[in-house]
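Support request, priority: normal
Reporter: lab tech (M.K.)
Component: structure prediction queue

Hi team, I submitted a job for 3-oxoacyl-(Acyl-carrier-protein) synthase from Flavobacterium pectinovorum yesterday, and the status page still shows it as pending. I've pasted the exact input below so you can check whether something in the sequence is tripping the parser. The sequence length should be 355 residues. Please let me know if I need to resubmit or if it's stuck on your end.
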Amino acid sequence: MQLKKTYINGIGCISTQKTFDTVFLEEAVHNHDENVLKIVPPIYKDFISPAAARRMAKGVKNGIVASAIAMKDANIENVDAIITGTGLGCIEDSEKFLKNILDNNEEFLTPTSFIQSTHNTVGAQIALLQQCKGYNFTYVNGAVSFESALIDAKMQIEEDEAQSVLVGGVDENGDYTTALFKLSGRIKPDNQQPYNLLDSDTSGAVYGEGASFFVLENERKKTTYAEILDVTILNTLEENEVEAETLSFLKANNLEISDIDALVLGFDGNVDFENYYRNLGENSFANTPQLYYKHLSGEYDTASAFALWMAAKVLKTQEIPEIIKVNSVEKLAYKTILLYNQLNGKNHSFTLISK
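Reply from support: The job had stalled in the queue. We restarted it manually and it finished. Here are the results:
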């Protein structure tokens, strides 16, 4: 049996940049002063009734809008499956519920925040709005939550279990969680501007939030951005193993280093783990165009979904905006792109897409 191919036929992205109603990143702003980036909100009432929107968590609203944009982009009304990846789920509602427990001495609690705080709320709300009764699954797996969803979606399409799948990565920031992340050193301390990622000498990351959704189908269409060739995840890797692992991943797909037209790296400004990216960028891929994105999106568990959105746009527009370049290497055409991401030395992922 011939496995079906997986094509990205529609994309939608709500992020800490204006990534809707734009061609690509022409309105993107490189922020040097904030260590936690906030979402640039779309006009929610164009997508969700104000009455419904009031009761929805940030992540749910952004997920609904991003998925609606992706569906419209792909010119389809419904999909066979909805698969979501999220690291922290609807963390704001979780915070609200826990705060209520403390404030009310564990009495007279309304369950609303608790019900809406579960990680699968986003996928469920999208399904309700679309009346999609198909396969609906949410992966919560740290920094590879989105890749886990992507692998599932790809398998569904390859095995002809589904013709079209809506897959996305969603995370939101909550005030209390953000404060804890600062305490634990996961987010860079306040007042340490400028927050530059490429020449950072401090630990911790610049944080963000966002929702990126993709319509994957088994047919190539006019709207096709790219084909997803392969996705793989590894829990632990040593810094000196990344290069060999990357090469064997390429080899498994019958590719050489010279076949890669751009390498997308997850630099997040955390000096303790930069070598994972440096080792790749400065050695094997020294002559390959290299891109980064977390200075625009911030670091969060599903930031790699923003990276895939960006890479798909590069293949479609055949241009690399200055704002995302790590080096000045250029190519005449961009056909195959490799994405590599990890968070704090764990949860490594490789994604390979081609035009």
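Residues 58-74 form the longest helix (17 residues). The chain has a mean pLDDT of 94. Let us know if anything else looks off. Ticket resolved.
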